[in-house]
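Work Package 3 (structural annotation) set out to generate three-dimensional models for the target panel prioritized at the project kickoff. During this period the team completed the workflow that converts sequence records into discrete structure tokens, so that structures can be stored uniformly alongside our sequence database. As a representative example, we reproduce one entry of 125 residues exactly as it appears in the project archive.
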Amino acid sequence: MESLPEPARVVQLPDGTYTYADQLPCIHQPTAAPQVVHQHIHQAPPDRTVQRLALGSGVGAGAVAAGVYFGPLLVGALTAIAANLALLAFLAVVLAWGVVTVVKSVGGPDGKAAAKTLAKSRRRR
């Protein structure tokens, strides 16, 4: 029993709460009545304008929920499609430029004439 530490002493603070005596806060002045701080944290509610308009026009809540769920998915899918099409268009331009450059350099006079004809036909479109 001699190896056990001495039990900590519990004291009651002036505000009525209990704490251990070895954890008392360092108080330099007498404590007055505790100040009550009212802190209001405001968070903006989500924008429900589209839902209100849809429900006001007679669209059911299921359609509004589907629009809220599938709207961002649709935007993401269209963005991915647009990015893929832009990449394919860039690839087509690079390949066409490469074909024209090879035909000009390898073909001699006939290749230059063919490249010129190809360039003219592109301008007409």
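The longest strand covers residues 10-12.
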